[in-house]
Amino acid sequence: MQTPGPRQQFRFPAPVNDQWNYLLSTIWNQTMHLVVILDGRLDEGRLRDAAERVLEAEPLLACRFVEAAEPHWEAIPSFRPESIFSVAGQDGDRDLALREVLTGKIDPGAGPQAHFDLVHGDTDMLIISLNHSVCDARGILHVSGLCARAYRAQGNNSGSFPSGRFPCDRSFHPLLSALSDEERAVARHCCDEQSAEWGMPWEPGAPGSAEYSARTIGPPLFRAVKAYSRSMGVTVNDILIAAFFASVRREIPHQEDRDYPVLTSTDLRRIHPGVRSPAVANLSVAFEVWLPAGMPGRPHDLVLAAHRVMDEKKRLRVGIGSAIRLEEMFSSGFDQVREHLLEAKRRSRIEGYPKNPFISNIGILPHSCVDFGYPHTMAAYVVPPVEYPPGFGIAASTFDGTLTLSCGFCDGPIAGRTVERVMTSMEEFLSTLTRE
User: Fold this and answer.
1) Could you tell me the residue ranges of all domains in the chain?
2) Does domain 179-435 have CATH number 3.10.20.740?
């Protein structure tokens, strides 16, 4: 496939939110995935064409990141068809094919930034992969929705589909400018510089290999979690943060009389939904949630503690503070931030410097983003990037009443059985909580 001629003229600015995620991709794998499990077979030709139409509708996906005095995205003059669409699993080993896709990596400096893999088995799986350097979870759901829409359009001979458009402002600026100076100052004040306080035990020097793990929590238990959430006036996100903290606490050496942080994220688009913000953008930011390691009592107590912290974070708009802090970090320049990250990488590899564990709640995956008409979608979940030690994170996503916990990790430095224990512990926490 050759990209259209006009694409060669495209050049998009890379705001600091893109630059940060690009630099993180030089430390670990920043490729995230949406796994769609269907009850039949997709048409390869229609799906291939749908993938090409998605890149035409979102030209940023057909770009590569360019390191320069002013980092930017530039269109790739041409690329091979298999660089955006592949078929796997023809030999019958669907699990192996899925693993290879989920542990693969998109190079943001080479592009394209999106890839579509069709994995055959008795029924099909579609994996849509995007580089986090170009967008957050909102973006991957948007891209999946475009792909499903294009696939359906071919089935009913409908020609309606979005044409290529120049992305609007993808930086933090529109969201920050919608707040007063006082509101921004309060948000920045409550967002302290993050510090690595603890982290999952790992073996420095072990080579390891990229792996992933997923655990489904079925509708009966998840319904009970939602009922508990409503009855207690807390959010499902509060509950997941508490469950994650309690579970990693079992694995990480710590002092019982101290508070420790876990990282979580928020989509800044939710703060000002009236502000025009593109889906293909990095507008989700991370912040710390500190909880007491030695809190005695029931899981309910830890959930209430997480709820109180999160309520305060929301009131102070901590996500805005994180965005401001990131812009301040880049005020010294792209190369200075690169040196900062290289130093953090050196400290972690040589000194065993930790990284606070991360929980990301993607939320509900809308049916519209995985509606291919026929075959029907039976399940869907998001798999986060593979984090290399000392990083460790879990993503939670919900589709059709089923909650899926997923993790990309480096097996060897962090044992797969450790990941399984964390997920088992989270499920046990939810079960205990809803039985109280």
Assistant:
1) 5-155, 179-435
2) no
C-alpha to C-alpha distance for 401 and 33, rounded to whole angstroms: 20
d(Cα 66, Cα 79) in Å, to the nearest integer?
Answer: 17
Partners of 126 in beta bridges? 36, 118
Pair of tokens at residue 422: 């964390």
| Backbone torsions φ then ψ of 279, nearest 5 degrees | -75, -40
How confident is the prediction for the chain on average, in pLDDT?
A: 90
* Residues 216/402, Cβ–Cβ less than 8 Å: yes
| Same fold for the pair 5-155 and 179-435 | yes
User: Hey, is 12 helix, strand or coil?
Assistant: strand
Strand spans (E) along 55-190: 63-66, 72-75, 85-88, 114-119, 125-131
d(CA 109, CA 272): 32
- CA distances 269 to 196, 274, 275, Å, are 27, 9, 8
Residue 110 tokens, joined: 């080479």
Least confidently predicted of 15-29, 190-204, 251-265, 359-373: 190-204
Q: If phi over 0 gives left and psi between -120 and 50 gives alpha, with beta otherwise, what is residue 188?
A: alpha
Full-prediction pTM beyond 0.70?
yes
Q: Which residue has the tokens 């003229």?
A: 9
Q: Report the topology of domain 5-155.
A: Chloramphenicol Acetyltransferase (3.30.559)
Residues 6+ apart with CB under 8 A from 278: 167, 168, 169, 170
Q: What is the mean pLDDT of residues 142-157?
A: 90
Give the list of residues 6+ apart from residue 287 with CB closer than 8 angstroms, or none. 191, 194, 263, 264, 265, 266, 313, 318, 319, 321, 322
| Tokens standing for residue 116 | 């579509």
Q: Which pLDDT score is estimated for 3?
A: 42
Window from 52-66, 113-127, 197-211 with minimum mean pLDDT: 197-211
* Percentage of the chain lying above the pLDDT 90 cut: 67
| d(C-alpha 357, C-alpha 252), whole Å | 10
Cis peptide before 112 (omega within 30 of 0): yes
